């Protein structure tokens, strides 16, 4: 693929990783690359091996699953892939090193061990060499990486990646203190940053010894396994490592041995944390090594443990001493367990003098623990406990027994407070017994003796006795007496404890009293109330609650009697208010007589209702038995509305009326004489309903008229059904006997018309009856079949259309089943099918497939043999066969005479064949020859179509392309002086009527519509000249003017010309295309000459620019695009642009920044410009000189006055000479050249103060100022010690401050001090306040004797900026050119 698609690989070197490009398998096979194809079906697995690419597509909807798996022999391939990812700097999916290490740690198959061993040895050697290399280069700091949470799984946690090769850093990495979040691998450590290697640190996950052990683990299952501490399977374990030092070279083992001696001596001397930290820092350079450094690692582990132990001992002593000396109780004590843990370590890790003092603290703590345990076990009094607690709180060591004793003391005091509150606090409410029980439980848990315990025990006995008496009363089986319970409760009131059983007895007593009160209230108000329903509810509730009482009451019998009377009154009231059944009224009256309340008014009214209901029942029974008119039934029904009882015969009366009304409603449709025959929405009547109505009329209890009319309608329906059956028999006879008695078509049509007329008349009569007749659908089906047969017979006298035949056959499928199988229908269907075949054979070229001549002749024979004659169709088929035979004869004549073959004859034969010929070999021959040229023209049309979108004819567009190539050739020939100028270069329109302009650079004419110019007043420049004259034009123009746009490509036209060599003569498009290709080849040659001249000349840029402008114009004007030539021209333009920019930079026309210079150098290298090129050499030398100047300028600008002022101005002069822009650095140097204060130093960020008289800035420490003066400040020069203010010449001073002579640097105000907000005082006001100022600043002036003397000795004029030095000539020797003039 790299040799086939070099351009894609140049633009994207990692193209194979992207999986976005497919190559023709035939090309791969030509390069001896095996290619396989497979059809994957459901349940199949396709395995892709390493270093192979696969692709595929689906034939429809598909759901597939892909999974990556790797056997052991894949490991070498995985390493190769990881190296490719590192080479192309592509992020890896997972770390190959992590995979190997995890597999080695887990249990693996013995068959995989050889592969795993080989790969582990490779990474061991690579890691060992890399670590030794960074150690030799001065990277001695190292540390372990963060331990992973799941070290036995791959990819669960993402490691850091190298910023250079973007690979995961699993085994090791390099970081720097300047950027702690940035890491690189050991191969790219030099590219991490510019810091010294001493600032770098090695991060590693496994030491070389651990990696060696992994290799040993991987070799456990091999036959030659040998158990040893240092495995022989990891090669080069003990290679001698040397590093250069000032005195020569020193070995890795020698350094380790020296370290071991120093570290071993630390255990014998008193502990020093700094010494241990320093020795551990030195050990970092050995811990990553192999088993030869195990001795160092063991000592380092002991050092770490000893350091932790000694620091812990010191911390314990410090905290104990701090607590003993401090009066603050918030200081945390040291735990005794922690002290004992430190003392339990034997032997002692190192020598710590404070260990004896720590043992003394531990012994005192144990004695105190024993004392506290003894006091708690003996239940001592609270006074002794407080003394022990005070002693324990003052002890500097925290022991658990102190907290236990404090908790016991706190609990005892809280319990004692609760007991006193329980007995001596005055309250009106009873105390909860749960609180008393809780106090008893807490008393049992206390381990301290108190006086209140006896008082609580005696009171608890009294409460328990009262509670037992309450339980005895509650357990009695009979109800309690009210008086007995009342006396007991009065005796129990003297105890102020809330006992649940006692409260329950009090509630029983209160419930009985409340019930008696409620009953008497109801009985007193009962005579005045009439809401018997509410009375019943209240009495029922009183009765129910009285039965639930635990105390006996005497009024329950009175409640039951009054409740029965109230319920009876409630029923009577309900019967008078609502209609109730007659039986219910009689039952209420019977119950009232038993309860002796029948004489009440409500029961008199209820007796009257009973008599009215009995009278109505007698009338209704008579009418239902003997019958009557509808009016009589309705009168009796209306009379029932005045009776206030539910009557038994009322439902029968209503049923009789309802049945009569229902019969009348159902019979109305049959009794209506006139109905609208056109109203289709009226539903048909059922004949079964009519029969049912006649039957129901004989059982009606209400006398009605109309049953005689219904019987007459039913007889008419029976007569119509008889006539319809006779007509159906005649129709079936016709359909069954028509084929056997077929004489002529006209005779059959007359019989069908007669039956059709009779059937239509019968259908009209049946519909007028508005009854759902069963024979009516059958008669309609017969009419439909007769009409279809009549339509089919009409095709015998005319040639039908294909649409008519299709409609007829479609209607045949919808004929009723009883007629579709008849012989006449089948005969007509067969004839229609034959007509359809004939029409299909006669179809024109719009049909997708033509019929064979043999098939047409067979259809003609079938139609001639048909029982039903079709003469017009027979004539049309015979005429079509004659036309086909004539056309085939013409085709044979065309192919048998080669001299007469031409494109026009072939086109004529193809058009006639589409209209007259049937399917035959001659038609395929003509179509094949015509299709070749047609396909070629369509391909050519597709190449040309994007040029202008909607095209005319193909030949017209090819002529336009040819003319554009002629114009491009004339532009190339202008380089030799032979060019005929046209009015507009970009189009073929030479009319001067359109708006145009002339380019001031090349003199060519352009229409404004063809190319918009860039103008300056009245001067115009074309885009081609702008591209060559300006830098922006180079960057933009070479992309827009050389691009393909919508023009066709030269290669496409060349392929078309080669494929048209075998075509017939006389094709205009082929001739035009051949001429276009010849012209394009000539333009290609001229472009090659121009590009070769531009790439090989470095001096005459004007001639090169002129040639490139002509090439740009010719490429833009040509209607055909050459991709190869365009790329060459674009490359030549880019190189020429680069050369012009470098030339302008070297001549100093316009200064550029150092970043621009580096960017130009990078562009040149990307273009392939060699280092030997003189412009490239000059650019590199200028970059190096500029970088040296920048480093020196930054050093001088931040030196705080270390360098001499002459060196500052020397650097400034050198920066102005260089053709590079150093605005920021020059500004820093100007600020550096300004001096302040009596020390004559630049601004070094120290606090400064300005004189309110002369604006001179002074350092606080130079004047021995400790704080800012409260009022105005005057320097010693403006206000000496005698107190007289000196007035300075401010106008001259401000002139010097604002600008120096010859453009000298200005003196800015100090960056940390602000201008005074108040207006400065005048000279007179300062003199008037002289005495006050002297008094306030007396102390300040006393300490300024030496400062004032130093000031007056070194005082110079107020002109700050030093004079510029003369031009330095030493810089010019470093520059690669001598044309730049030095600035004065």
Structural description of this entry:
By secondary structure, the chain is mainly alpha-helical. About 60% of the residues lie in helices and about 5% in strands. β5 and β6 form a beta hairpin. α8 packs parallel to α10, α27 (about 745-770) packs antiparallel against α28 and α44 packs antiparallel against α45. The two termini are about 60 Å apart. This is Lysine-specific demethylase ELF6.
State the gist of this model.
The chain is mainly α and 1384 residues long. Mean pLDDT is 77; it is low at 222-239, 674-678 and 1284-1384.
Salient structural properties:
four-stranded mixed β-sheet, 20 strands, 51 helices, 58% helix, disordered C terminus, mainly alpha
Report on the biggest sheet: 4 strands, mixed
For the largest sheet, list the strands in their spatial order: 1-4-2-3
Strand content: under 5%
Using only C-alpha atoms, the radius of gyration works out to: 62 Å
Number of continuous helical runs: 51
- What is the share of helical residues? 55-70%
Q: What are the segments in which pLDDT stays under 50 over at least 5 consecutive residues?
A: 222-239, 674-678, 1284-1384
N-to-C terminal Cα separation, in Å? 62 Å
Counting helices, strands and paired strands, the structural category is mainly alpha
Based on CA inertia axes, which overall geometry fits? flat
Q: Mean of residue pLDDT?
A: 77
How many strand elements? 20
